[in-house]
Amino acid sequence: MKLAANGPEFSRIIYGTWRILETNPTPQEINSRFNTCLDHGITTIDTAEIYGKYLVEESLGAALALSPGLREKLEIVTKAGIYIPNAFHPDRRTAHYNASGPRLIKSLEKSLRLMQTDYVDLFLVHRPDWLTRADDTASGLNELLANGKIRSAGVSNYSAAQYELLNGYMDQPLVTNQIEFHLLHTEPIHNGVLQQCERLGVLPMAWSPLASGKIFDPANPASSRLAEAATNMSSRYNNASLEQLAYAWVAAHPSHPLPVIGTNKLERIKSAAESDSIVLEREDWYALWEAAAGRKIP
Ligand SMILES: NC(=O)c1ccc[n+]([C@@H]2O[C@H](COP(=O)([O-])OP(=O)(O)OC[C@H]3O[C@@H](n4cnc5c(N)ncnc54)[C@H](OP(=O)(O)O)[C@@H]3O)[C@@H](O)[C@H]2O)c1
Questions:
Q1: Ligand 1, atom 31: closest residue by C-alpha
Q2: For FRET with 288, which of 193, 209, 213, 220 sits at 20 to 30 Å CA-CA?
Q3: Is 90 exceeded by the pLDDT of residue 208?
């Protein structure tokens, strides 16, 4: 899928690396994970400077270094702009956002070094920084685009108004807004963000399409309603699982969001990739919405 007229081509499903260190994988295991993704048509990898308390990118770099040529088979997305106190940064007193141009450039250059690559396919401002002017943020992104360190620029967790403001200062239009969108967080349907993507012809990226696993939480009443709804419709979709239906639900929005998945299980990467072909019928999409919301549509 082309993310935007001036954007990169990404796979329909994107593999997210936020949780990748939870199982203490070796570089070889991460390398195998990438190859599993490729085997199933998932070519796009999402990461961020802050993931794994600033340790994930270095692990990805070690995994990529094991197979010359692997990096070119993948599209890499990274993000910057969130800074938290931790062992590497004892000088930081308070978690904060910083999307100033110089700060973004410094972070991206560190990301390239850690991932052992010369460029990323997409660089995102991780969260809107309430204290930085949009022209300042844009100056950093424009410089990185001009010197080829990033092939495209976008944002994450931006409101429609924040996106519009920053986009106005960009030399090349932003190519996505990566947002939280799933059955337990449907606000983007109503807050204008998905409509803005549709109007501008950019595909949103949808993070945590399984609500970080909460759609399977037995303590959550929405989960049992979703499980029942999924069972009722599964036979119409080649016995699809709830997780596959949840991915298909996200992807069915007319703005064509690309789900950014987070499993550490190889078989679940495969089943996510297979969800790609599910086209939910209108009434089933609304039935899943009702099950998640616990009420009828207005
Ligand atoms: N831009 C942002 O601000 C932002 C914020 C959050 C995340 N993200 C991106 O989105 C990616 C995905 O986020 P996420 O990890 O929250 O995604 P997710 O796909 O919603 O959730 C993944 C979690 O669900 C669990 N899970 C999957 N299938 C399951 C099943 N059938 N039963 C029970 N548990 C199941 C997984 O466990 P297993 O590993 O055991 O399968 C994993 O812990 C991240 O890696 C990151 O790249 C971006």
A1: 243
A2: 193
A3: yes
